């Protein structure tokens, strides 16, 4: 031990560069080891879920229980965030050690540096802190994950990466949006739980509504009974009835509860089959000049076979004025 200390002291002017080099090498090795552990853990969890469900491709998990999909997506997201956090922490610690090695007298000045950094965080860097904290909470609370289809307000699309400061969203046109986590005030996740395919079908005003609704429901039930579509549909299709009436047409609403990734596919197939069924029944769809069908639905228009029950509000009688 004394010989090693003597050898180290004998390096003379080379002592500081070698110490700095050792710090950098150790930091790189620690990062590689932690990165290996994170990647191995992520692969182990993802592979375990795939093996349990008997699939090889992650996309095949869309047909498996929804919890398995969320486990894979959340694991990959947490893996990416942890990798970013590990890299940031190691770089900061290594930089401080290098500065301490090169200028030992700078240790006493770290209190002033810390005060300056605190002031900077309070003013100029507060947005960065907000981005980091918001990103961590979004991942921990499972608000979104890699592969989810989300509506963040500034951008809507598929989540490609979730960093500690920025989330990357690829929209339907292929544009990659870099959204700061601190600017995300709401998250509309279209990939959690289930989705609902809503089809508003306009038929002539003079049509027999009972016959039309029976035809629509029979077509939808027949489609969802097939093996190809049965695995994508969660519940039996429902006809919610007349949505609107005009002098030209009556709009009937059909809804199908599906898996999140299958909503558009199911809706397109249903539209094609409904068109063929109406043609075979001799029902000609009217030209819509004054009817505008909207895409997004408000919470007030959602109802079905089991609408929510609410208690009646008490009616307070106005007291009579005494004469």
Detail the poorly predicted runs: 59-66, 290-313
Strand content: 15-25%
Assign an overall shape: elongated
- Percent helix: 40-55%
Number of helices: 8
Task: List the defining traits of the structure above.
cell membrane, 5-stranded antiparallel beta sheet, 8 helices, elongated, 3-stranded antiparallel beta sheet, Alpha-Beta Plaits, 323 residues, MscS_channel_C_sf, alpha+beta, MscS_channel_2nd
Overall description:
InterPro entries: LSM_dom_sf, MS_channel_C, MscS_beta-dom_sf, MscS_channel_2nd, MscS_channel_C_sf, YbiO_bact. The chain starts with a helix and ends in a 43-residue tail after the last helix. It has helices at 2-9, 15-53, 66-102, 110-122, 126-140, 209-224, 227-230, 263-280, and strands spanning 149-151, 156-162, 166-170, 176-180, 188-189, 195-204, 238-245, 249-258. The strands form two sheets. A five-stranded antiparallel β-sheet has the order 4-3-2-1-5. It has a three-stranded antiparallel β-sheet with strand order 6-8-7. Strand 1 and strand 2 (156-162) form a beta hairpin. It has two domains: 10-189, no CATH class; 195-286, Alpha-Beta Plaits (2-Layer Sandwich). The chain is of the alpha+beta class. It is built from eight helices and eight strands; from the N terminus they run αααααββββββααββα.
